[in-house]
């Protein structure tokens, strides 16, 4: 993309990059999205895969992703209650972004520039 196109896309309105970052910003959101690419997961399954995240942080990040329409939360009427999280169609549309981030991170881990 050339400089003129980049600047015209962001004139008098939020930049599309800013819009994307508003949805996926946060230390854990991209990791949550990456984990959910594999399918539905329960809260504790996610928590076990993300050992450094606190219960509260995971709850808040999932709520924000749900609010933005990227993640769907399903509560089943069972005792004890069962809750599952999955990506919506909008969430799956972010798969190329998440995969690109994965690939970039893998390349960087192999050849860090320090």
Automatic annotation (TrEMBL):
Keyword check for Cell membrane: no
Domain HTH hxlR-type: from-to ranges: 15-113
Presence of the UniProt keyword Transport in the record: no
Protein name from the UniProt record: Helix-turn-helix transcriptional regulator
Single Gene Ontology MF annotation: DNA binding
Keywords: DNA-binding, Transcription, Transcription regulation
Alphabetical list of PROSITE patterns matching this protein: HTH_HXLR
Top-level taxon: Bacteria
